[in-house]
């Protein structure tokens, strides 16, 4: 019979043993549980013995594998040494040869060395490669074995329940070993790309370990959150308290103390480390296939686990506020704001410790809250607003108002939460898709049909207001008086054009809230472009009405057309100025692509810009009606100069010295000056300049073809009369330029020829085109010059 072993002395007990005994034996009644405790401890000891036996077998297998590699390497090294010895002996033997064969033997030795050395070097390199491979494989096998053991230990129920501190240490050891393994794999991938099978085999085993470790880590994190009262109570939230920030908000994250806080920080850090490890693995794996790391931003798992129970608790309130969505947005903003400070103060240092570069807890908290809200909007709110009415025409006016109210709430909410993010001072909302993650309007990225419906409703509301303002004639007569708009004084537009720009500005401002560039462009094409087109149609209609009534013979009709041209040119210039802004330039740069968005597969942005088509239409309208103004004045001028043109004899008669201009031309010149003055007074300077230059060119062709090319005979007095008439005609245009005769090139050069002496004219024309150019005649052809010369009568 075995002797009973005495109990060890109490002083030899460790602190952990005292803790264990204190937990198990709190009073005398707990002594009755001793047999069960002994059985439990024996079971645990048995399991640990089995694991120890397995580890011993694994160690034996590793040692055997290493011995096999060592034997192989030893054999290769022995072979190399043998060949090196043979080479050395052959080289030494050649030294003892003498006489005339010495040089021959040296050459032979060099040939042998030249043939043997490359193969020897290759074998040495191969041996070294095998050695490195063997060491690396053995090291990775050992590390992965440690990982698998640590993961299995972390899943051991007895270890988890009886020794929480040891469990956390085991999991931390597993994460550190995973990080070491990943560092080795990264080096192998870079330096030895042909070792792909080894990397693949290790990745497979590590993936299996992670598949067990991550879910358990998240489950432990959730249990810990529940233990210290997360999520906080929202039962006292009312619609009246949503807009105010309560000073007595209970934040369980700040209320943690002692061991509980230490456990939470350890769990949070472990989750962040696991996520960082996964990002490194993805970066390496994608880099090996694509040549670079192409990663999408992953939300922080630990922050998501904080947000999810909060949103679940909030949804009980959301269901009561389906008809009042403003309360939903207010509640989400309140929760986001009330707990955002703890992200910076408590959790951000843990993220930095885990070396998760580029992550801000504040941003991740806001992003997770906004994403959860967006998901609720997609599932519960928008389907109610869309309902069973697929067409915008089916929506009632109340439904349209509700749509626009919801969009206003989303835009306002986005601005408020983005201000929370920007307070950290480390985030640029316009870079790397950050805006997309903290915007509730990101719902339109997956549902472009909802964006189109919003644009249609927005357009309909704008057109209703714009039509009422365009129908008011006073808006077409009063000019824009805005000193802040530098172009208003240049183009002298009616106030209706300023009203249109206000509507366009509002549409553009609303589009800026859309987080994706290509969707902003799509929204503007659907809402802003048709608004411009509607205004252009109104301009065209007004001009056509004026033309149809009086053929633009009345001054009021000229004024009406001039105001329409001014309005169109002003809109064109302002849009051109806007499109030089970075906001519009980004839309044409192709920074993001709609290829992954359903419904936009065939959508492409015009190369000429977001308003390229509208620019072309506005320019075409302007040029067309400027030309019509010129044609109208020319038509009236032509009708009043017919008698003057038909009177061919006047150029052979003596001129009346009492008149400085022909009587038949006076009425036409008065008409010309009157009409151009009306147009000058009402049309903007740039377009008026184009109009009178076009008019001058047409009058030049009219007189040149009707008089100088009509076989008319000019006497000396006739030439003088024609010169004086043309001087008066030039005088009408002298108010807008210094040398108006330059805009009547054919008449001016014709007069130059008519004023020449007979001998000079005949001799010059015989010399041809060179003489004409030397005498300043460049627009007339040689044939036209000769015909003008034939019309000259010399006394």
TrEMBL record:
Cross-referenced PROSITE patterns: RINT1_TIP20
Positions in coiled-coil regions: none
Domain of life of the source: Eukaryota
Name of the protein in question: RINT1-like protein MAG2
Region named Disordered: 92-111
Species this protein is from: Eruca vesicaria subsp. sativa
InterPro entries in alphabetical order: EXOC6PINT-1/Sec15/Tip20_C_dom2, RINT1_Tip20
């Amino acid at each position: 019979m075995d002797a009973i072993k005495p109990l060890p002395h109490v002083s030899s007990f460790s602190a952990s043993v005292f803790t264990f005994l204190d937990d198990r034996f709190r009073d005398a009644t707990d002594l009755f549980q001793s047999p069960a405790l002994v059985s439990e401890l024996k079971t645990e000891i048995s399991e640990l013995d089995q694991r120890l036996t397995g580890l011993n077998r694994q160690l034996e297998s590793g040692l055997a594998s290493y011995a096999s590699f060592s034997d192989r390497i030893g054999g290769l090294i022995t072979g190399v040494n043998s060949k090196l010895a043979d080479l050395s002996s052959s080289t030494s033997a050649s030294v003892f040869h003498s006489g005339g064969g010495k040089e021959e033997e040296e050459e032979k030795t060099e040939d042998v060395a030249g043939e043997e050395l490359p193969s020897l070097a290759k074998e040495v390199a191969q041996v070294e490669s095998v050695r490195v491979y063997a060491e690396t494989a053995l090291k990775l096998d050992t590390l992965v074995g440690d990982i698998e053991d640590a993961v299995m230990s972390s899943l051991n129920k007895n270890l988890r329940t009886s020794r929480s501190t040891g469990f956390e240490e085991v999991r931390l050891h597993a994460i550190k070993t995973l990080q070491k393994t990943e560092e080795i794999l990264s080096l192998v991938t870079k330096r030895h790309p042909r070792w792909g099978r080894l990397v693949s085999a290790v990745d497979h085993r590590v993936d299996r370990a992670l598949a067990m470790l991550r879910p358990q880590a998240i489950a432990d994190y959730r249990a810990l959150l529940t233990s210290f009262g997360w999520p906080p109570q929202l039962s006292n939230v009312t619609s009246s308290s949503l807009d105010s920030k309560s000073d007595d908000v209970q934040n369980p994250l700040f209320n943690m103390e002692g061991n509980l806080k230490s456990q939470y920080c350890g769990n949070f850090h472990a989750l962040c480390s696991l996520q960082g490890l996964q990002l490194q693995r993805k970066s390496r794996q994608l880099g090996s296939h694509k040549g670079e790391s192409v990663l999408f931003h992953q939300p922080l798992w630990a922050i998501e686990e904080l947000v999810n129970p909060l949103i679940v608790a909030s949804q009980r309130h959301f269901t009561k506020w389906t008809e009042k969505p403003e309360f939903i947005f207010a509640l989400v903003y309140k929760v986001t704001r009330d707990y955002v400070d703890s992200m910076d103060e408590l959790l951000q240092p843990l993220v930095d410790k885990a070396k998760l570069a580029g992550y801000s807890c504040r941003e991740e908290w806001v992003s997770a809250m906004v994403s959860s809200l967006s998901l609720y909007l997609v599932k519960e709110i928008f389907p109610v607003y869309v309902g069973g009415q697929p067409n915008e025409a089916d929506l009632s006016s109340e439904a349209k108002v509700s749509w626009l109210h919801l969009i206003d709430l989303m835009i306002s909410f986005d601005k408020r939460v983005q201000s929370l993010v920007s307070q950290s001072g480390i985030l640029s909302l316009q870079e790397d898709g950050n805006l997309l993650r903290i915007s509730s309007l990101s719902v339109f990225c997956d549902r472009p049909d909802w964006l189109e419906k919003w644009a249609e409703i927005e357009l309909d509301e704008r057109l209703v207001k714009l039509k009422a303002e365009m129908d008011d004639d006073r808006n077409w007569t009063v000019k824009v008086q805005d000193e802040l708009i530098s172009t208003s004084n240049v183009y002298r537009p009616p106030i209706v054009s300023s009203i249109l720009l206000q509507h366009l500005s509002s549409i553009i401002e609303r589009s800026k809230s859309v987080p994706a560039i290509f969707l902003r462009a799509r929204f503007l094409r659907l809402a802003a472009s048709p608004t411009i087109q509607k205004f252009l149609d109104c301009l065209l209609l007004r001009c056509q009405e004026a033309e149809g009534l009086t053929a633009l013979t009345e001054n009021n009709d000229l004024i009406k057309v001039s105001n329409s041209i001014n309005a169109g040119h002003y809109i064109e210039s302002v849009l051109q100025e806007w499109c030089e802004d970075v906001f519009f330039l980004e839309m044409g740069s192709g920074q993001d692509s709609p290829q992954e968005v359903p419904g936009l597969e065939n959508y492409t942005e015009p190369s000429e810009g977001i308003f390229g088509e509208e620019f072309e239409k506005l320019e075409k309208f302007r040029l067309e009606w400027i030309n019509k103004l010129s044609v109208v004045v020319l038509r009236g001028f032509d009708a009043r100069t017919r008698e003057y043109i038909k009177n061919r004899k006047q150029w052979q008669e003596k001129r009346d010295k009492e008149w400085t201009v022909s009587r038949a031309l006076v009425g036409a010149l008065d008409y010309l000056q009157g009409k151009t003055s009306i147009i000058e007074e009402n049309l903007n300077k740039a377009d008026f300049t184009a109009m009178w230059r076009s008019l001058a060119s047409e009058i030049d062709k009219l007189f040149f073809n009707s008089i100088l090319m009509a076989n008319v005979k000019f006497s000396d007095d006739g030439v003088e009369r024609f010169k004086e008439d043309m001087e008066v005609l030039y005088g009408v245009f002298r108010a807008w330029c210094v040398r108006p005769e330059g805009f009547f090139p054919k008449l001016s050069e014709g007069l130059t020829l008519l004023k020449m002496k007979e001998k000079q004219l005949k001799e010059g024309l015989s010399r041809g085109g060179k003489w004409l150019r030397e005498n300043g005649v460049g627009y007339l052809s040689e044939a036209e010059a000769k015909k003008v010369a034939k019309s000259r009568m010399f006394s």
